[in-house]
Amino acid sequence: MTDAVVTRFAPSPTGYLHIGGARTALFNWLYARGRGGKFLLRIEDTDRARSTPEATQAILDGMAWLGLDHDGEVISQFDRAPRHAEVAHQLLAEGKAYKCFASQDEIQAFRDAARAEGRSTLYQSPWRDADPASHPDAPYVVRIKAPRDGATTIRDEVQGDVTIRNDQLDDMVLLRSDGTPVYMLAVAVDDHDMGVTHVIRGDDHLNNAARQMMIYEAMGWPLPTYAHIPLIHGPDGKKLSKRHGALGVEEYRDMGYPAAGMRNYLARLGWSHGDDEFFTDAQAQEWFDLKGIGKSPARFDFKKLENICGQHIAITDDAALLHDVTAFAVAQDKVTLSDVKLSRLQAAMPQLKERAKTYPELLEKAHFALAERPIDIEEKAAAQLDTVSRGILSELTPQLQNATWSREAIEALAQAFAESKDMKFGKLAGPLRAALAGRTATPSVFDMMLVLGREETLARLSDASGDA
Fold first, then answer.
1. Which end of the chain, N or C, is more open, meaning fewer C-beta atoms within 10 Å of its C-beta?
2. Domain range holding 56?
3. CATH number of the domain that residue 423 is part of
4. Residue 99: inside a domain, yes or no?
5. pLDDT tens digits for 129-148?
6. Is residue 116 included in any domain, yes or no?
7. What are phi and psi of 182, to 5 degrees?
8. Is residue 2 predicted with pLDDT exceeding 70?
9. Is pLDDT at 1 greater than 60 in this prediction?
10. In CATH, what number is assigned to the domain containing residue 83?
11. Residue 450 to residues 208, 361, 368, 453, 463, Cα–Cα distance (Å)
12. Other C-beta atoms within 10 Å of 207: how many?
């Protein structure tokens, strides 16, 4: 039996949850959830000047909206600093690390001389093999003893084997002169202590892997499986930036994209399962694997995102969609939803969700159900309500009074009425749209009548025809 899979997402809380970070979190979540494993969350808040509680909350909110639930408590890297230092001191005691007393001026002088002589500028400390008896009473950093010969190979599930010559690795600092641990040490110790089996992260961390592996090997810890995923680019092939559009997950939430559609689209951004574009969470968890991740940067395509989101809105259960849309509307102060409006919105949902790609689009189509009398009629729609049209509506209204309130009956009555006036129904539809919704682009007039009910329909027609 294989060991349980443990993945992690480890963002730095310096702002919003970036769309690239969200995809990294999603890949880790899918990999763990699809294998009955654990998905852990660690906040890398060691940079105290840039880390803020607000940014941490923004990350948690973004993940909650995306539906990426994590196991166990959120781990603060800063809180674990004593443990990180403990590992450095253990390596020091075992002779796998050493105290370096070199000043910044001495290090700079070494690099200047190396550059002038055409040698590697990687600092080689004279303190690496110095007798502890010769140590001065002065500030020092703790450096790991990097291997000097041979090569280090990162066995990466996405990038393949990546080999770095060991003479390209310096004796990395583990503890600063004030005793605080560096990021590289903190990450390696945390990943080991958290039992992380798979490190799935952006390929901008690929070189870090070789340095973190030095700590693993010096401590005799088993290495995790690495998978470094390419970054996301904009449609123009350049690194995703603000000029391409929204970067933060909460911006997509506020624009009214459904979380399920966002998950689907982000999963396909750099990973593929045959030609499948549209899939459910259950399918994504079942299908997702590291072999399907491409080596090239993915390109963010807003049209594809909208298309996928539209398909997810269309298949969402009406009650669940009503819940999500109303939560969005309230959060964005779009509308105040009374019980009557909620009831109408629910009744209209089967028609509204067919072609809406975002929640604002759906709410826009639902305008007729959410509007209140007297209906505010747009100029273009008002042109449909000339004297003749109002007279026709005035004649139609009493006939609807006694009609059976079903689509078939209303449609048959309206068609028969149009024929009696020697007109095509299309000629009648324009004034009906204007009267019922105050607009020229609306759902089917019969769908609107059924949603509004007999009483509200007749009242709106009376208002428009001037009979009220």
1. N
2. 6-76+233-308
3. 1.10.10.350
4. yes
5. 999 999 999 999 999 999 99
6. yes
7. -90, 165
8. no
9. no
10. 3.90.800.10
11. 62, 21, 12, 5, 18
12. 15
Based on the fold, state whether residues 22 and 83 are members of the same structural domain.
no
96-138 per-position pLDDT tens digit: 999 999 999 999 999 999 999 999 889 999 999 999 999 999 9
**CATH code where residue 62 lies:** 3.40.50.620
Structure tokens at 407: 């689509």
Burial of 274 (0-12, 13-18, 19+ CB in 10 A): exposed
Q: Domain tally for the chain?
A: 4
Whole-number pLDDT of residue 334: 65
Residue 344 lies inside a defined structural domain of this protein: yes
Give the pLDDT confidence of 272-329 residue by residue, as tens digits.
Answer: 999 999 999 999 999 999 999 999 999 999 999 999 999 999 999 999 999 999 999 9
Percent of the chain with pLDDT over 90: 89
| DSSP code, position 202 | E
Q: Is 242 annotated as a binding residue?
A: yes
Tell me, yes or no, if 242 is annotated catalytic: yes
- For residues 171 and 63, give the distance between their C-alpha atoms in angstroms, rounded to a whole number: 37
pLDDT at 468: 53
Q: How far apart are CA 142 and CA 140, in angstroms?
A: 7
249 with 326, same domain?
no
* Residues 363 and 397 grouped into a single domain: no
Considering the domain boundaries, does residue 225 fall inside one?
A: no
239 and 296 fall within a common domain: yes
At residue 219, the pLDDT reads: 98
- Which is catalytic among the residues 38, 96, 239, 242? 242
242 in Cβ contact with 308 (< 8 Å): no
Which residues, including other chains, have CB under 8 Å from residue 285's CB and lie 6 or more apart?
A: 30, 33, 34
Q: Measured between alpha carbons, how far is 249 from 264 in angstroms, rounded to an integer?
A: 14
